[in-house]
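Before any further analysis, we paired sequence with structure tokens, yielding the entry below:
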Amino acid sequence: SAAGQAGQAPSGSLSMRVQFDFDSDRLSPASHAVLQKLASALTSGELANYAFTVIGHTDAVGSAQYNRALSQRRAASVKTYLIGQGVQASRIGAEGRGFGELLDPADPRSAANRRVEITATPR
């Protein structure tokens, strides 16, 4: 199941999380709802002067190389979805970080670690 959470990050950038099922880069219906709201915000005038980075993460099951590739696919699937919702491709970057930044380090296999974060920075 996927869940989204929006909030202020320390630098004033937008941070939103989209979670993924185990070993998957497929967006769930719940993710679509979260990302539709995000796309509306990204295409609003208030955020016109911002660029966005979609950062993919995984849990710690499997090799570092495999998880880096999976995290990149997760970020790319979110980027593709946002572009399909009208966000300019030039405003969105995508990167994968594998399991290097676990959200729940006490439980490396936790679903909370399988996520994409989206950050905004002034451009």
Residues 12-122 form a domain with the 60s Ribosomal Protein L30; Chain: A; fold (CATH 3.30.1330.60). DSSP finds two helices and five strands in the chain. The longest strand covers residues 50-57. The chain has one domain: 12-122.
